[in-house]
Batch of 2 targets.
Target 1
Amino acid sequence: MKRTPNISRRSFLARGAALGGAAFLGGCDQLSQSPSFRDLLSKAEWLTQNVQRLILTERDLAREYTEADLSTHFKANGSTSVADPAYQAQAQNGFSDWRLTIDGLVDRPASLSLADLRALPSRTQITRHDCVEGWSAIGKWTGAQMTPLLQSIGLKPEARYLVFNCADKLGAASNYYESIDLIDAFHPQTILAYDMNNAPLTVPHGAPLRLRVERQLGYKHAKYIQRIEAVSSYAMIEGGAGGFWEDRGYAWYAGI
Ligand SMILES: Nc1nc2c(c(=O)[nH]1)N[C@H]1C(S)=C(S)[C@@H](COP(=O)(O)O)O[C@H]1N2
Ligand SMILES: [Mo]
């Protein structure tokens, strides 16, 4: 494993000092919850791998539960099926010819099969999903970790958000979509989940691939992902607010 060079730590500390020194370093987690600080951290100049690593090791994980805590019933919400004929044909074939596109502000755009994704470094986590509609459920999720995937794809310096394009429309004219910043993209519990409760994702829960971004509310957890685009801004996408529900008035930052 490559070690973090001291020079990077020094330049990180220098920047930290410029922002208020000890208070900045000591209160890292609280500060990371403030939108303006998150915005600052998302700026390209901050996003060398080593800086990300230093920040993220300080971040709390969402609470993880045990097998005994698993909900006997996990509600499926929002879209529970997809009308798109191309998706339905893929589902018929067990998603063997489905592909995930990763493009936008990346060094090496990719087209990945489910087998490709299953071969990547994975993480399994038992977490509680909280929907703004007033229900929660505990489920077990396994998926490809975003951090090593993004490191192999390579983000361009201008990249600040990942936009997840989904296959469903939820009664609207255009597809469901969501966006997360790079703080959440590189969070250790952020995974592209292909298994739920030890079995391949079912269609109601977002087959074949959905986002788990455990420090955010339910609507950020995009199901039926077909494309991930790295962008510098989401202002020009759809309604401009960064997501299907955000365009309809929900907060973009849905941290819990
Ligand atoms: N593509 C897509 N993703 C989606 C939704 C949706 O309708 N379409 N609904 C969101 C909402 S509001 C919630 S609470 C969760 C529900 O996930 P579940 O069906 O696995 O419970 O998915 C989120 N992701
Ligand atoms: Mo939700």
Note: Confidence is low (pLDDT under 50) at residues 1-28.
Target 2
Amino acid sequence: MWQMLSPTALLLLVSAGTRAEDHPKAKVTLDPQWNRVLKDDEVVLRCQGSYSSEDHFTQWFHNGTVIENQSSSYSIAAARVEDSGVYQCKTALSPLSDPVQLEVHTDWLLLQASRWVYEEGDPIVLRCHSWKNKHVHKVQYFKDGRGRKFSYQNSEFHIPKARQEDSGSYFCRALIGPSRNESSKAMNVIVKGPTIPPDSPLFPSWIQVTFCLVMGLLFAVDTGLYVSVQRDLRNSMRDQKNVKVTWSRGS
Ligand SMILES: *[C@@H]1O[C@H](CO)[C@@H](O)[C@H](O)[C@H]1NC(C)=O
Ligand SMILES: *[C@@H]1O[C@H](CO)[C@@H](O)[C@H](O)[C@H]1NC(C)=O
Ligand SMILES: *[C@@H]1O[C@H](CO)[C@@H](O)[C@H](O)[C@H]1NC(C)=O
């Protein structure tokens, strides 16, 4: 039984051990916050992580490949389409961050959002961004083809508290310069309802594994007990017979 258990038990011990001494993952943030930008926009990627006294370098990855710069922020002065892709960073003490996606588009107008997936109650911020911040006017935001907001000067479209009905396909339209009538590509905004995911584990998986092991162990012990009790019972019944036999013989 121990031999059967040991690899799993070892695994549990090992994962518990590493978890205790882990630093949290490094984190990439974008400044400004938009993950979709236009060609020639300026973007600064910052890496949040822990450094050790000897090692204060940051390692950056673009599309999984190491890039040269080793400072905690990586600045792109004028974005090119090739700067698109996923960015990750790590520091001496913080393991590799989750990937952050940057999209560089070549369009006149671009719809930007603080995020594309929201929880109910979150503030939604949409922005109609023009190439090289060229002057725009008569700016309109559309949801599912219907006008939702109009302003003579460019302004962001704010929804203070997102509701599920705010989910949909959004784009913006504006006049650039005196009369260039342009539309952005449409983007989906998703507002998730209050969720009690039925399939999400109530307990961390290691508790479940332990639970299964303990149940298995109990079952094995139980079966063993049952077998031995039965054997004892049979033995004692045979003994009783023997006793009877002896008795009848004796009388
Ligand atoms: C990378 O680092 C060098 C100097 O270390 C700097 O001149 C260059 O602008 C940096 N590039 C980016 C994209 O941050
Ligand atoms: C990174 O990947 C993106 C998307 O797949 C691509 O558009 C971009 O050109 C790639 N850039 C580099 C430098 O690999
Ligand atoms: C821009 O063009 C659309 C049709 O493509 C038109 O409905 C709209 O009124 C135009 N906007 C302005 C401000 O002229």
Note: The longest strand covers residues 168-176.
